[in-house]
Amino acid sequence: MNCEQYSHFAPEWCPGCGNFDILECVKQALCDLEIEPNQVILVGGIGQTSKMVFSIRANMIDGLHGRTLPLALGIKMANHEAKVLAISGDGDFYGEGGNHLIHALRRNLDVTILAGDNRVYGLTKGQASPTSSYDFRTKVHPQGTGSQPIRPTMLALAAGATFVAKGFSGEKDQLTGLIKQGMQHRGAALIDIMFPCVSFNKVHTFAWFKQRVKPIGPEHDPADFEAAIKLAMHPEDTEIPTGVYYRISRPVFGEHLTALRGEPIARRTLNYTPERVRAAFEAYK
């Protein structure tokens, strides 16, 4: 399969932005899995990472800030056969959309969530994000954020995700593999992707991440919840484990609904006439 078939509009990120590497990994994963552009639906929100959906040739919808996952839920309910990728950043998923993330994970919505985590709001020029450190200083936080950062993998585990992983844009082979595993997983798959913002985050640079990331060894059992918790709580000052933290099988959201079984709703034809519901609609005029 020609991987170039996924190329679309050229992105306009800053030179050196880690989003370029993430974009390359997403396209490579789609290519390796031999998923045709018309078989995947990309859902984006607001932010620099969300712009990625415009650079991949596939079905795409771009939503409101923090509302990426409600769109993904509706799409999946309408067509449970579609491969749905929700792509956005740490602000969109962990800040504005934090409540939607929790419920998508606990419901085990069959969607792959790629969260670009550069620990800063890059689109709006450098404010602290939910994953920024306590002493992270910006123009609007000159004395530090004063808030403990969210640990995305810990949050995902607590919310009930069935697939939790962490990757780094600078380790493209590993990241491509994680995206492929997430897409092959049946259920809610969160992949927290660390990457540098070269313009607005001078602390968590490429070198900072490169010095700390360490692939999880083969001794780790992804089905061991307590072991996954320990990985998620590992202090980041010296080492950040990357790879699959947790993976189990559980019924996905929608399987319990008889109305969603069989042919996807998106391909069904109406088996009733509008006259049967006309009175109900008239009552709301």
Set out the fold topology.
Layout: H1 19-32, E1 40-44, E2 59-62, H2 68-78, E3 83-89, H3 90-96, H4 98-107, E4 112-117, H5 152-159, E5 163-168, H6 172-184, E6 189-194, H7 206-212, E7 213-215, H8 225-232, E8 240-247, H9 275-282
Parallel strand pairs: 1-2, 1-3, 3-4, 4-6, 5-6, 7-8
Antiparallel strand pairs: 5-8
Helix pairs in contact: 1-6, 3-4, 5-8
Rg over CA atoms, rounded to whole Å, is 20 Å
Instruction: State the end-to-end CA separation.
Output: 53 Å
What are the low-pLDDT stretches, counting only 5+ consecutive residues below 50? none
> Strands of the largest sheet, in order across it?
2-1-3-4-6-5-8-7
Tally of alpha and pi helices: 9
Q: Give the overall form.
A: globular
> Per DSSP, what share of the residues sits in E-state strands of 2 or more residues?
15-25%
Q: Summarize the main sheet.
A: 8 strands, mixed
CATH topology type: Rossmann fold
CATH superfamily: Thiamin diphosphate (ThDP)-binding fold, Pyr/PP domains
Helix percent reads: 25-40%
DSSP, total strands: 8
What does this protein structure show overall?
Helix 3 (90-96) crosses helix 4. The radius of gyration is 20 Å and the shape is globular. The longest helix has 14 residues, at 19-32. The model has no long low-confidence stretch (mean pLDDT 92). The protein has one domain (3-254): Thiamin diphosphate (ThDP)-binding fold, Pyr/PP domains (Rossmann fold). The protein contains 9 helices and 8 strands. The protein has helices spanning 19-32, 68-78, 90-96, 98-107, 152-159, 172-184, 206-212, 225-232, 275-282; strands at residues 40-44, 59-62, 83-89, 112-117, 163-168, 189-194, 213-215, 240-247. It has an 8-stranded mixed beta sheet, sandwiched between helices. By secondary structure, the chain is an alpha/beta fold.
